[in-house]
Structures are given as structure tokens and as C-alpha cells.
Recover the amino acids of this structure.
């Protein structure tokens, strides 16, 4: 069912606002004109502005900014990431939903929700996830050791930051893996995994982007330190294209990850991050460390040189920059 | 409910086959004689051989070898491991059951099942789990980094091997973490975990012991390489005591893990293992390595020196000893 819908949307998009007859559509899909009409009805119900006339056929007036699987998958040329897309109108959190289906899902499956009712950030913190944002999780089943799982988070941070810079905004990665614009958070990444000691069963890379959601939906606390792409660019962003760009770039990064030494990826992270060289205070669940961020390790840990001259390796935590 | 049953079993065990009146039991538990009688009925239904006489009261004829929570918990003096015990008559696998409840469970919760219908070994292999064996999983929520999670498997291997040696059998650890007697497998350990990159949510340490189960229940393939404690000692083992000993020793090991350098634990592993010095062939999901096992790392990886003189670190896999 949804494969045919994806195909119809793909073809209508290719026609770029021109009409195509029901007969032609039917031939392209190998189905009857009546079936075409049924799929069109279903797509119209989903919110696609498809007009039909007996004379000239069907026309997609414009591509609506809804994150339905067929809208994302039509035009996405990935071989792994996003070959399956699962959409929810509302869900507790896309990471939770992904966990529930991960074992039975294909490698590269993407879970998207319009709204997260209990969106989660790193270290158990809540993540406000109203309509207008991009809340997605990617299920990956990499053949890597547990000790290297953190590298997938690094890939995701690079991916989002690069795509945002391509959009013309000055995005930077703040260790461990937030994406900031003008010192305000625009994206968070929550990577979770399930594993035996000897092999990873699956990794869930959750990506939350404040895109077209309203600043007003943030709590007062968040408002000081968060922003949205709409706010930063002055206009709503095309979320469908953004998701496609992210999935496409993530696939490229993942291919690089599987074929090239990790040091090249780390170099790109360093280039895109503004953390190294800064004075930081990091709060972990068990301690607090202050000092100068002097390096990042192959597994994404930060090396902090404290005032006493001793350097410490920190795996993660809440990182604050000292005002300089 | 089950707290009172645990208390009754504890008291009856302390009376060691002598009788105690319903009135005394009721006073000890702060409940009426009628309630005592109801609990006794319930325990009798569970299979406890409790005799009652109007004159002298209640008596536990002998402690039955059933792995019910109250039977395991009464007399177990742990502060963490086994403070909650959940029992199934049949379950898919205790690791699966533990995963389903882990988030809401207390640190140290133990899941036991009489039978596992889809028992799992390492790397997705099946584990035959009929009545008579010990199939349990321990839920732990350690404040350690993902990179150190493998150390908990090492603790479990040491625990089981020590307890078996105390029973008088010559148990050894075969890397990565099987326990063998006379070169045949008597225990397998399957450690799984759920984590964010920055913090572990929970670890499930699954321990499967061929105790009183029948050799005849093994497949022909398994029969060559597996044994049971009953087979090795010539008589059925007391599974309740064995589980108590394991939970108690595991708690001691876990305390040591949290307070002492890991090198001391590793030294004990080396002492209990027969792998170092042997020529091994290891099959991992992605490759095969042959050579001499020359060392174990702080995270339980094996260092193998190959014929070409190059040493490799292997995280896990199926390990075979070369016949020498």
C-alpha cells in the first residue's frame, strides 16, 4: 500500500505541478485507473493538495511540509538509511518507538513523529517536542564493538551541522553533541543502544531539531538557551527537504565510517565544533570537572586540563562554557 | 503477601524441622492465627511440605528444592542482589523477562524461571533450559562507563566458578566466560545491556547452570560438550543453596568491583581460568583468529599471538582450544 503511495507522490513531484492522467499513472504503477483513484483519495485525505480533473488528470499543487513516509522517501536515493520510514502522528518518543520495533526492523529504518509526548534528551532530561519540529530516530545495526558505539553520535552531530551550514546558518557542535546557532541549542542528539557484551544488537540515533516549532512553546528556562531554524533564518524551513538532506548526509557519513579511518571523521568534527580551546565546566551524574577542553579522543571523550595541570578524560555530561 | 510468606519460610527454616505454633508465628509476623493459616495453606499449595497439628503447630519437614522467591530470599543476607526476586514457572528467557521490567525494577532484582522456553546463549545461540537447571538473570544499574560494562561478565564468571569449587568440583573459566568441568560446559553467562552513550541504563547478567537437569535433555551435539552438576557430583545439588551462594558471592564481587582496582579482580579471573597459555581458535561474527592466548585486558578482551608473531585483541566470540 504505502509503496504505491510513495511511487505516486514521487511521480507527481517529478511532474512539478503539471498534470498526469490516471491512465499514465496506472501504467507506471502497474495498477488500474480505479486503484489509482483510490490511492489519490487516500493521499488527499492525508493532506496532499492533489487536484484532479477528468480532462487532464492529477496534479500535486505543491509539496506539503508533512513528514509522511512517502513524502520523505520519494526522491531519497539512499541504499540503507530511510529505506523504511515509520510515521506517527503522536508518540511517547521516537527513540522509545524505535526501541520497541528495533529487533524486527531493517537496518536503517527511520521513525518520525509529528509530536513527541514524552520526548527525551540526554541523561534523562525532557525534550519539548511540539508540532513543527523534526523528531526522528534512526535504527542502525552496525558490526562494531561496544567501545566504539559513541562514534555514531559523532557522525550524527557532523551530519546535522553540515546540513545546517549548507542552509546558510552558522551551526556549531558543542561537545558532546548538541548543535548550536548563535550559542543557542537548535538540535539535540540522543544515542541509545542495546547490546550483548560481544556484539551490538542495535543503536538508536535520535535527532531532535527545533525547526518550525514556536519559541513560545519552550519553557522560560529553555527559551534563553534554545532557538529554532525558523527563528534563525527568518522563515519556515522545508522540513521534508531537511529530513531528506539529513538522511542522505548521514548515509554518506556512515559509509565513510565503515570504510575510512575514524581519524578523518574526527578531524571534521573538530572543524565543526567550537568546544576545543574553551574553558568548560562539565557535570556528570557523579562529578563536576572544570578546566580547558584540550582534545577529543577517538571515542568522543573530551580531555579537560584542570587548573592543577592534571588532564582528565570525560565521557559525557552537561557541558557549560565559561564566559570569557 | 509474598513478604509474609518469605518470613514464614524463614522462621520455619530456623526451627529446623521443629514445630512452631500458629500463635507464635502470628505474633512474630504481627498477623492473626487465621491469616497464618491462610499463608500456610498457600505455601502448601506451592509445594512446601509443611505439616500442621492442632497440638504443636506447624513444621517444615524439609526445605524443598524449588526456586521460589521466599525460599531463596529467606536466609539470604544481601543488601542489593536478590532483595527482589521474581519467579516464573515458564518464561521465554529470563534475560528477556528482565529486560521487560528492568527500567521499573530495583537495582539488584533477580529473575528466575523453572523453565526457559527460548533460552538464549551468547551471540544469538539457543540454550536448552529444561526443569532442573538454574536459569536466572540479575538486573544491575551500575554507575560505570559503557566501555567497562564487560567487567560485570567477568565478575559473574568468577562468582560461579568459585562457588562450584567450594562444592568440590574442578570448575574453570574458559574465555570469554563459560564455566567448564572436565572440559565440558556446565554454565554459560549472557550479559546484555541498555544504555545511552553517556550512561548505562541497566545491565542484565544472565546465568544459566546445568544443575539437576538431565543429560538426556541435551541435543546430541550438546551432549559431547556439556555436563551437569548432578552428573559431575553424582547426586542432585541443592539448587536453593546454590542460588543463594551465587547471589551472595556476586554481591561480594560487586562490592569489590565498586571499591577496589579492577586489576585484583582480573588476577582472580586469571587464576580461575584455563585459557591463557593455550592455543586457541576464535570465531567472531566477522572473522576467525588462531594463535596463542597470551593475556587478558582490563575489559576482558583476549590477546592472541598469531603464528606470524602479530598479536591481536579479541573482544569475544566462540573459542576453541587446540588439542595439544
Amino acid at each position: 500500500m504505502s509503496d504505491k503511495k510513495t511511487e505516486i507522490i514521487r511521480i507527481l513531484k517529478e511532474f512539478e505541478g503539471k498534470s498526469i492522467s490516471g491512465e499514465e499513472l496506472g501504467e507506471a504503477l502497474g495498477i488500474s485507473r480505479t486503484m489509482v483513484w483510490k490511492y489519490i483519495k487516500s493521499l488527499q485525505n492525508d493532506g496532499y493538495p492533489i487536484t484532479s480533473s477528468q480532462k487532464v488528470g492529477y496534479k500535486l499543487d505543491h509539496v506539503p511540509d508533512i513528514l509522511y513516509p512517502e513524502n520523505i522517501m520519494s526522491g531519497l536515493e539512499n541504499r540503507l538509511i530511510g529505506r523504511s520510514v515509520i510515521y506517527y502522528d503522536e508518540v511517547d518518543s521516537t527513540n522509545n518507538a524505535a526501541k520497541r520495533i528495533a529487533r524486527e526492523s531493517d537496518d536503517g529504518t527511520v521513525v518520525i513523529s509529528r509530536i513527541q509526548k514524552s520526548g527525551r534528551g540526554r541523561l534523562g532530561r525532557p525534550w519539548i517536542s511540539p508540532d513543527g519540529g523534526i523528531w526522528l530516530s534512526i535504527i542502525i545495526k552496525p558490526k562494531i564493538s561496544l567501545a566504539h558505539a559513541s562514534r555514531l553520535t559523532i557522525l550524527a552531530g557532523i551530519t546535522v551541522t553540515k546540513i545546517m551550514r549548507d542552509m546558510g546558518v552558522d551551526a556549531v557542535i558543542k561537545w558532546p553533541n548538541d548543535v548550536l546557532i548563535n550559542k543557542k541549542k537548535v538540535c539535540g542528539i540522543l544515542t541509545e543502544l542495546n547490546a550483548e557484551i560481544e556484539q551490538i544488537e542495535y543503536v538508536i540515533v535520535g535527532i531532535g531539531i527545533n525547526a518550525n516549532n514556536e519559541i513560545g512553546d519552550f519553557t522560560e528556562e529553555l527559551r534563553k538557551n534554545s532557538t529554532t531554524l525558523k527563528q534563525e533564518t527568518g522563515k519556515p524551513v522545508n522540513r521534508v527537504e531537511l529530513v531528506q538532506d539529513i538522511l542522505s548526509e548521514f548515509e554518506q557519513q556512515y559509509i565513510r565510517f565503515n570504510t575510512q579511518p575514524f581519524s578523518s571523521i574526527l578531524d571534521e568534527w573538530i572543524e565543526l565544533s567550537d568546544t576545543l580551546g574553551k574553558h568548560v565546566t562539565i557535570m556528570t551524574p557523579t562529578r563536576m570537572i572544570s578546566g580547558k577542553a584540550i582534545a577529543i579522543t577517538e571515542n568522543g571523550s573530551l580531555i579537560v586540563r584542570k587548573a592543577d595541570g592534571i588532564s582528565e578524560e570525560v565521557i559525557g555530561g552537561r557541558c557549560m562554557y565559561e564566559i570569557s
Notes: The interface with chain A takes residues 122-123, 143, 145-147, 149-150, 153, 176, 190-199, 201, 284-286, 299-300, 315-317 of chain B (CB under 8 Å).
